[in-house]
Task: structure prediction
Amino acid sequence: MENRITEGVIWKQILLFFFPIWFGTFFQQLYNTADAIIVGNFVGKGALAAVGGTAVILNLLVGFFVGIASGASVIISQRFGYGDVNGVQKAVHTAIALSIVGGAVIMVIGILTTDWSLRMINTPADILKDARLYLVVCYLGMIPSILYNMGTGILRAVGDSRRPLYFLIAASLTNIVLDVVFVVYLKLGVLGVALGTVLSQVVAAVLTLLCLTHTSSCYHFDWKQMRFDSQILVQIVRIGLPAGLQSVMYSLSNLVVQGSVNAFGTDVVAAYTAYGKVDGVFWMTMNSFGLSITTVVGQNFGARKYDRVKKSIWQCTGLAFLATGVMLAVILPFGHVFYRFFVPDESVIALGMDILYYLGPVWPTYVLIEVLSGGVRGTGDSVLPMIITCLGVCVLRVVWILGIATPFWPTLHGVLACYPISWSLTSILFLIYFLQGGWLRRRIKAQQQEAEKTPQPL
Result:
């Protein structure tokens, strides 16, 4: 099996893997942004708030499964790095089966809990109907959405970050065209945005599955062989469940934040939604570094190149800080220009700029969380990173909002202060955990024990 990630100059290999992921995430962000631009300009700020204010609910259930799916990516990348063809095959078929079952479960749970979840985040009454409609339609498209996420995770695990980019470009263009048709011409409003999103995810899922079924490589997928391998499934859940629970805790804490923001009214919700699109550039960049380092570390760890594991994480950290500085230099001075793409309302733009000036300068405090947790997870160590993140980010945010902001600092700034405080503390905890080094020693020992029970690859 050809494998370049375990060879050559490390930072170059990281960037060669990072850029296709980044551009892919950019196009994913593009079709989310297209939703916001079109609905904000052709339907109104209420519809913009309805679409943006429900994202945190979708992320709660979807993020849980995507976290579990990350366990499959780690297993596949390690076995691919080691040259275990049979292990890769079993993991691929187990992963696809898991995504279909998981997508169906999320769809049912999501639809049944829609009204309850909207009440929990204090959704303003004037956008409640549109928010409910948007959520239900999006939940109906969960199976293709999860299949796409799992399929591209498989491709990235084996070092292919280009074809996921092509699939996302196709999905993004599909979504933009459908948004224009459904919203601008057919006047379907929020329903049109939701339909465009779901149908574009169907396109992405079909393209991804066609790629997996038509390849002759070791990660080939055959519908007739799709079944759960109990040993692989246990390994996926062992690694992925902590990441899934971590994502749930993230989303629950963000639900508390979103609920507090919603209490300030529709203008603030619309401004916070628009800010989320602007700072999406930062988040997609950090997420791309996180995905990159997980795969790079996974393959090098699988190949027993432990020195490259540490070097990869440090070099990825430096690249992530550099990228953050460049983004801030562009976004802070020109934020108002970006906001005008989403909403023409001057009061909403002013509120959005206030949020950007408040949170943008502290983005660097998040970098270590994404890179160090992604790198450590690439070795298969996911429990302690989950605990650190849940305590440092999720629990602290809830405690801050309910125990400090609400009674003593009941302003928008008081609520949003939970972000820099939780990022800073969690980054310090991750740095201590990483430098201590026990995570790598434990995983090497576990790897050696597993190797003694596993036949050597041909």
In short: The mean pLDDT is 85.
